[in-house]
Protein 1
Amino acid sequence: MITTQVPLLQTVFPNIDDWGELGHACVDTLLMLGGSLLLTVVIGLPLGVLLFLTGRGQLHAMPKLYAMLSLVVNILRSIPFIILMIVLMPLTYVLVGTKLGIRGAIPPLVIGAAPFFARLVETALREVERGVIEASQAMGASTWQIVRHVLLPEARASLWAGVTVTAIALVGYTAMGGAIGAGGLGDLAYRYGYLSYKSDYMVVTVFLLIVLVQLLQMLGDRIVAHFSRR
Amino acid sequence: MIRFVDVHKSYRVDGKDIPALEPFNLEVADGEVFGIIGHSGAGKSTLIRLINMLERPSGGHILIGDTDMTTLTGPSLRAARQRIGMIFQHFNLLSSQTVAENIAFPLRLSGKDPAAIRGRVDELLQRVGLGAHANKYPSQLSGGQKQRVGIARALANHPSILLCDEATSALDPQTTASVLDLLAEINRELKLTIVLITHEMDVVRRVCDRVAVLDAGRMVEHGAVVDVFLHPQHPTTRRFVNEALPEEAAGEQMLYQRVPGRIMRLSFRGEATWSPTLGRVTRETGIDFNILAGRIDRIKDLPYGQLTLAMRGDGVDAALSALREADIDVEELAR
């Protein structure tokens, strides 16, 4: 099987001589994506809940704190990722001991994506009917109980949609990160496809990225559909 | 007993105080069904939320038994709220949870153990007649069924007070009737105090013992439903009563001018409804009468009748005093 397939691939993509390297790049991209998505949710979810709770007219309206958080989130969201990555390099080094590779990519990925995800969380929570929150207060629920048993379960479909959008944004970020030493598919596309004019590398990596994004979207849609009860 | 003492409430909008409720005093007795009627924006929503401190008053006190609700905060307020059930116009159920989980929710909040919760949920499902729907989600239920879930949830922690915030306003007339029947049954069997707000006089007539009328933040009238219904004093109250009896309100004045005789309105209530007083009095005094409008109905469990008559003859005055003696309210509308 392999002996017959390799010559075929070689005819179509003559410049790709190391398919193993491509496979390795795929794994790197997936690792970066998985690691950064997990941390993004871990940091972005509480941040989003805090944004929601401190917002105007909400359970714990604190205009000053909200304005401050909101400003930080907006600043981080307005810096293009590739610049954010360069700006954060010293911090990245302090945090993980390297500026390169998967480990070096994760801090900027998380710092870039967590504010984005936090905004999505805030929006998702705002869609929870006020009446349901009021009913829970009337039943004597504490704020923590409302977050845990009302807001998050009621918003879970939109939250999963937010995770999906964030994951797909992170795929784009990892590819950009590849250009400045993070490895993965973006690195291959940039080094071979762009700098060395091996356009078949570009075709294959773009194809793999499209497949990855498609898979993420399909998976996300399934989870969202499962949790939709309206 | 729920007591409002010099309570008032205003909202601060753009640096100005907008009054929502002008100072008022009110007592709701244990075990009664108390209605608050008013148009939208009259302040009734604010008033009912003062009871469980979803809204805090700008001044005054709200006492439930010996507890001044306005002094409670944090855990003590949450504990007090668990003893006050509340149902809503739009039900406000958790859409991500089943019927049984929704009913269990207040029990979980108060830290009951799973076995006790299961038993109590089953009991409540039976009470509101939803035994077959325990595992459905709210989106699979009709409006009336959703409100029944709301009622079961509100009753879960054995409250002594049930607050109903326009609980039947989103329901069709038939479903409204069945939900009101359920509320009346709960009031009767569990000796629960019910405070309800509504904009429909018919809701008040069917279930309430006493009623307060709110008009633009002012409590313009309150008293027993029979009195307010049969003898409304304030124009707003009259409008509400007429809404419940549209056929009588329409063209009333025109009609009176065309009919010879004295136009009298007779109101019977309770026992007087069943005795043939009018027949006896007309025979004895030799007057003649003509029925212009009338109805015999019930206010909660009390039968009542109201007849508008044109009376003619020499004995009208004698007839009127005889009717009054027989405990019939007589009111002259036009001569």
Protein 2
Amino acid sequence: MNVLRRLAPILAPLLALLIAAVVGDALILTFGQSPAAVYRLLVDGTLGNAYGIGQVIYKATTLACTGMAVALGLRAGLFNIGAEGQLAMGGFAAAVVGLLLPVGTPALLAVPVCLAGAALGGAAVGAVPGVLKARFGAHEVIVTIMLNFIVLAFLNWIVATRLHVPEQLHTPDIRAGAIGRLAGAFPAFHGSAANWTILVALAAAGFMAWHLFRTRQGYELRAVGLQPAAAESGGVHVGRVWLRTMTLAGAIAGLGGTNFVLGYKQYYEEGFAAGAGFIGIAVALVGRNHPVGVLLASLLFAVLSQGGLAVNAVVPKQMVDVLTAVVIIAVAVTVPEMQRLVRGAHGANR
Amino acid sequence: MTDSALEAIHIVKRFGSVEANRDANLSVGAGEIHAVVGENGAGKSTLMRVLAGLFVPDAGTVRVHGRNVTGWDTRRAIAAGVGMVHQHFMLVPTLTVAENLVLGQEPTRGVRLDLAAASESVNSLCARTGLRVDPSRRVDALSVGEAQRVEILKVLYRGARILILDEPTAVLSPPEVRELWTVLRTLKARGDTVVVITHKLDEVAEISDAVTVMRAGETVGCLRTQDATPAAIARMMVGRDVVLAGDLVRHGDHAPGAAVPDVARRVALEVTDLVVARPRQRPAVDGVSLVVREGEIVGIAGVEGNGQTELIEALAGLRPTEAGSVRLNGREIVAFDVRARADVGISHIPEDRQRRGLVLEYSIADNLILGLQHRFAHRGVMQRDRVRRNADRQIEAFDIRPPRPDVPARALSGGNQQKIVVAREMGRDFSVLLAAQPTRGVDVGAIEFIHARLRAARDGGRAILLVSADLVEVLALADRVAVMYEGRIVVTLPRAQASAEVLGPYMTGAQRGAKLS
Amino acid sequence: MRRLIILAAALFAIHVGLLLVRPAGAEVGATSGAVNVGVVFDLGGRGDKSFNDGAYAGAERAVRELGAHVRFVEPGEGSDREAGLRVLAAEGMDLVIGVGFIFSDDLTQLAREYPNTRFAGVDYAVPTDSKGQPLALPPNLAALKFREEEGSFLVGALAALVSRSKTLGFVGGMDFPLIHKFEAGYRAGVRAVCADCTVIAQYAGVTPEAFRNPGKGLELALSQYQSGVDVIFQASGSTGLGVFEAARRRGKLAIGVDADQYGEAPGFILTSMVKGVDAAVFRTIEQVKGGTFRGGVFQLGLAEQGVDYVYDEHNRALIPDSVRARVEALRQDVIAGRITVPSTR
């Protein structure tokens, strides 16, 4: 029984994946295709060759950042639906900084400056719901949703009226601050969008783990999320923690925007990562709000996203969308079930 | 009375590696009120849940009126007339009393809910049982005592004739407890059987016909209440002799602070004309002035809801104050936030440990530094070895069980959870301790321990402001007793002049008058 | 806990069982022999009743008539465009088509990387250097551009000829050069047949959102009809649905765009200015099959049947024969080069 209980955290996602797989089987069969062949196509197109792996790495980089932005909020008891807007603003800020820097600025200077710009851009968007919640008790879910609309509309407007290339919906190429592709060091990745921004995401995960579990602010952040009243009597200013957390979450989501802007296209394009902020919610959920879990979950959803393209020839794209949704729902259902079981065992000591 | 309504025979119930019940036996006679006592973690709740069909036992037999019903589920238990009233209410706050009662078996006319019929049947049930609740009120507008009555009614509405109540008095004020006893006696009078879990021995004596004592998952004895003394039951519960707070009161054994005249001691805490506002109502704390000197315990007695909670929270910095001054050792601290107050010497044992006192998912070690986290961090990084050493020291000093710093607080019994709070708040430098309901929901062994700690701190020259809904506790500990009523201190008396008889009228508002010290 | 493990095992067994099912007719991968074509749609993809659906129709026709083997890819986010093109190119497709101007950069880059694969871009925007001069395209890339101004010219003339109020309306989506082409051609067409007519032109906005705002379309169209306009040409994506609604409410006429939009408001749609995306896609596939594919920029106008207006049994009643004859004469003038339609305002 003890061994089983240790298995519980793994069993939940496993069960979720199995449920998704069976639903996927049924869907594929309704399209008159063979499940085995479609899954093979999915795996071949993602993990079966270096290009596919590169694409998965690229997509996982963005999703890891938005996933962490959501997970960090949840750790403090905040539901950050705003990663979408924070990501876009981060990418836009990186592009603007990259455009303002003079041509030939050494990468060693330009890349950190662009990254800082992205973090600041995302942080600014994240701070708004933080302030409104801390000051006026405005619910962060509503504020972040509305802010997504506002930020995206604002960015569309400014790009369309001031910054776009003729007949296109993107800014001109940045002058400095480009991050190299992985293919530069590993030629096998040739053609894939994977780039060294993955290191930024890994560093952010490392920072998040350290911040949450090793620092005083992390101790207070988790306490606020678990038991705000107790944190308050422990001398924690709950509002300040909310503000700080949302700002930090926004910064991490903003860094995710550099994956496309600095690492892939070297320009900001309207809707460049549409949906990544929302999938970030699923990534956080499946990753159990733990940095390592978020990294693994971002790989899972990246495989599904890239796999969707690979199987698109034989089944509609919506099939993979449905599969993604089933994973999310299955995790949402199985995880609390597991927690109940694990807690039930503790409850005996009460 | 001889045939058993409810029997549990050799019940074993395991959760993983933990045996919550290992050989539990219980025999409840028909038509009697049967108390089940034991320390927290003794397995009382588990046994009750086995009886009510919530848990399936790993071994043993459950019988109802002689019929073997082992392993039944709640639905069949209810059908057989066995219902359980839980410690934590399971009501829908936004529905009315009547709607809550009929939930799951609503009377309908066609497909529509027949609320008139629901209300009617609830009214007649109230009349039959003497449980008075207005069926049309919303549950979130009810007091705790009323909500509990609704829980009892809910079980009765489903036809229960054997009621199991899990620590019903833990959340009630003394007058509400007296009303509950009346209700239980009414039920007994109409032939119902009642099982009550408690760990307050005076309640056992007052209400029950028989008492079963549990310790460490086993039932260690069953006595007729008239044959048992509180001391004997306490000994069975903890397995050793215990000094009971009530004994001190009864035997006049009370030891006040060292015999130095009050006025000669330094004033540690001075509160003047403190006002704490409430939205759209008169202030919760309405001009309270009081003084706590070094080396004394000032006890605030009173029926709950008269501003005690707000007073303590305002003093701790958790609630904004409208007016007034708070001085600590002569220094005005009314503008200080929680951490600043803690740093200048205010310690606070909050009344609701699960909400205010602990982060239940945090480990014992992490809970032992809550509020002190800035002192266990160097340049913003937690010093984990110091946190660990602090935990080892406190766990030993306060006998927290299990003695494992990594165990989450949620896994501990109520008494041990409270010991974490007490260890944290008393195990550091402080000059004034605000102790709100320091022993609520805690077993006798832990009560004895906590009381001893409070006295030791007092004797060491600390000032303690004690708030308790338990008058016995106030009388057992305080050197001076104040009564709070409707946001004001209506009387302050030296311990020698205070007694339940003297204080009672002040607590109910029948008598007013202030004596300032 | 044990139940959940059993559940997991059962699910696993079902899954393995289903994996073994092989429905008849299931097919996967490219076929040899036939022309292999890959089509990557724009975000939004199929079902737009516009150029994505047009490209789909053209490709489906190639499947029926040329025996082509076609794979479709619908991208999910920004990086999927390049990934979709690349996956198809890497699979050895003979022709890879990107539908929408947004593919321009990606197509240029991939055409250089895969010189032996042919690429085509619908609405391809030719990149320019810093002085505004167009850059050379790779030889294996065909840019399929449409002379929207020529089709707009004909519907402008048509509108002016049926108008009684001599006041014509234009509702554009996003205010940018691509849509200015429509407005310029429309104005020229009106002026060609009616020197004293006036044209009121308005745009729904300056962001791409302006193509998805039917409410704004309704508002603009109602105010134009109010001020005496009796025919409105809309070039505004789904914003145009609001224009049609206004026509229905006021009993006035509207002109559709891209595809035949008669069905959106039967009786109130004078005609539609259609882009021959289907024909262009079909012809490109045909050229690949016949070995006559060439790279370069292809401006598809009236002469190439790249643009046209709808005249069929539905709207015949709305267009008198004399009007029809006059418009057809204008068509011949444009094809013969006697009239040059402006593409900028």
Protein 3
Amino acid sequence: MSEAGVTREGLTGRRPGREARFGNGMNGPAGRHRRPEGREGERRGGGARAEVVPPAAFASYYGRPVIKPPSWEAPDIAGYLFLGGLAGAGSVLAAGAELTRRPATARAMKLSSLTAVSLSAAALIHDLGRPERFLHMLRVLKPTSPMSVGSWLLAGYGPLAGAAALSDLTGLLPRAGRAATCAAAAFGPAVAAYTGALLSDTAVPAWHEGHRAMPYLFTASAATAAAGMALLAGPLAENRPARRVAALGAAAELAAARTLRRQAGRAAETYERGAAGRLMRLAEGLGLAGAAGAALLGGRARPAAALAGAALLAASACTRFGVFHAGLASARDPQYTVRPQRERLAAAG
Amino acid sequence: MSAQDEGRLRRLWWGPEPEVAADAGHGQAPPRVGFFTDTSVCIGCKACEVACKEWNAVPEDGLSLTGMSYDNTGALGASTWRHVAFVEQQKPLGGQQARVDHSELDVLALARRGSGTPVAEAEMTPTSPGRDGSGELRWLMASDVCKHCTHAACLDVCPTGSLFRTEFGTVVVQEDVCNGCGYCVPACPYGVIEQRPGDGRAWKCTLCYDRLGEGLEPACAKACPTDSIQFGPLEELRARAAERVAQLHRDGVADARLYGEDPGDGVGGAGAFFLLLDEPEVYGLPPDPQVTTRDLPAMWRHAAGAAAALLGAFALAFSGPRRAAGRRRAAGRR
């Protein structure tokens, strides 16, 4: 309602949903956004440390976001995060399998990495505003831009992954194929890890505040995905390393996700609520179930190994989509931008 | 690396950087220019918005009503390079004098009547008390624009080199290079730059780069009827702004404060800074913006650590003891 009395009829002119809220009025609460009762301290497992600080108010411009969320499409970019991780970690697994004479797993992982990196490139180009200009990515190499560094990494990694897979499939140039396999395995961890910096190097609170844990979360998620693919596509006799990686990856993913939320401060809420919260919880459940299934039954029964592998792949994808959506949510709500900055100013005096 | 090199690298990264154009490789750079937007004299006419659209041929981007006071523009974006914010508050302004010539008016007669309009017709007059006893209305207006940061995150993260630092120290998008990756959009701590729907490329204020080259001031500053938008060399604007804020404080406007003028702030000082009459967030501005690339060295370190951990985990998985117990030990070590 118009408390300023700017309408002739005063309150009679009230139009629901159209009232202009005051920015930071000194004499009224209208401009200060208060969070609904009981939601402030809503952190899972936080029953004992109930919120004692009263819900803080903050000012904003008509509740509008301060920063702009990225216009990236979730299937393209979150999908790329998943596929890029699967490809990168998969190449490491392929090299390991090849060097320890597990040829069927090696071939499956090389194929999976080639497919994943090809789909990645397609998704990235599709997401460009001007797809026909994708080669502009290679005009310069800028260490200040994780996207530039990533473009060059993919430009180096993609052909190697392709050469490794083609050599294995056709049996041509086996020595060069092995060299490509090892080189792809050298690029793989970088391809899987740089995306952590890619998302964190933005003003999006949920991503930036978690910049120390994000690369670890992403490589753990990549390892989980690669292990899942090896369990799904590799023979039982060769899947012991994949089961170990599954356990390591799922545990690391769980730990890194918790660390990320702790570092994210107030924006941690966006990892716990809404679509992002559902995806992150699903990722935890699927990751634990997949790793447990792989450890207990993955070495004995083919269907169990395949099922565990599928669960691990799904867990990795859920993590990526969850992180992506948490970032969007934290960008759209001005409180995650304004309040931590206010607190920072207050702490600095 | 010598201490001098290290100091230069740090200066390029964050903190005060006096010679942005020279640091970007412009040899004989003219003085850095910018805007000082003094919102205390903004009258909300939106001439800046119109002049910007006209000069830069920025397309129309919606003609809807928002219900946000007189602001039907909404926010800065791909096709809005100047945005006038309107904030209605219940707070009387202190010590204001319009200095309007009233010599032709019989003000005593008007005062007796209580209103310029006959009271019977006016219903509400400047002297009638508020119905609910609340205070006066204060109407804040502020023309927002790209800040042309000293440390511009959009420029830092642009993978194509489309965004660049001009010889005037401003930040401009080269539209024939931009491939619409959209990375600059979430990188900006102010939410200024945006991709234009249907076009795909990122657009923002150029500080009228074409006009600067011809020795003209930007269109918005040229059109501003109250000189709320002042254009000039940044050093001069900073001195003028300090004087203005001191003057307002002397006149009793304790709310007046500068925003973005400090070279020591999180973006190394903005090329376009403001005099505000309330907290920045009231106008939709972040209270303590930081260039995201300030933390990039840490991000790269952690990414390298994570990549090494990934490699280590796989090495463990393939080379570790072939018994189940090895898995637990490996997990503990990680």
